[in-house]
Amino acid sequence: MNKSRDLTLLALWAMLGFATQLVATHWGLIGVLAGGLLCGIIVWLAPKLLALAFDSLWPLPLTALIASLLGVACSRIVGQADMGHLAWLAPVLATAPSGSPALASLVRSERCGLCKRTLRTVLSFSCPRCSLHVCEYCWGFGRERCKLCDENHIPLLPVESAWWLDRFGARRLTGECSLCRTSAGASHTPQWGCGGCGHNQCAACWDDNNGVCARCGWVIPDVAEMTGTEHRKHNHLSKDKSYA
Questions:
Q1: What residues form the membrane-spanning segments (predicted)?
Q2: pLDDT at 142 over 70
Q3: Most buried pick, 22, 28, 152, 185, via CB within 10 A?
Q4: Which pTM was predicted?
């Protein structure tokens, strides 16, 4: 509703710019060009004077362009003196007051590390695996990683045994992984017990699940800080229980 209201008010306000451009054509080429610039200033002032807000950068310069273009075109239709092709520069000048900041913002805005789309008007995420800042279209929702890391199986957690021993203690030699169901005794991938419920997960599944226990939602503390992941489920299981 507010968006429609703002666009309607902008269109009505642009009629003042159109009238300014039309009147300015009475003073020859200089008047036409000055009228175009004045039309752009009038449109540029609209958000400040009317308290308008737009998600995109482009409604203002586009509105100024149309208002000035209509003004110049109407002056030709009613038979005013022909000022040559240079008169059509007026609509271009009309876009300058609001278009220049928009263009500068677009050039300076950060872009997605994968598709290079500007991040100004879309959701963006910092991938904990590769540190790329990516847009919502290049982010794997539910996977908590960018699509490049997902496709190439880029690991999140270190492979050094010392890192795992510091956080889990001794590796599990019995039982099976809660996710891939691989037996601890038969697997070449180490299995580690959850600090919340005690169930096993192999190192590969800990990594693929972003350091989160698939059963109780417990998160490896260091990984929680790195990914912003919090405990996902209330743990109803005792930490003192052991599982074969």
A1: 29-46, 58-79
A2: yes
A3: 22
A4: 0.55
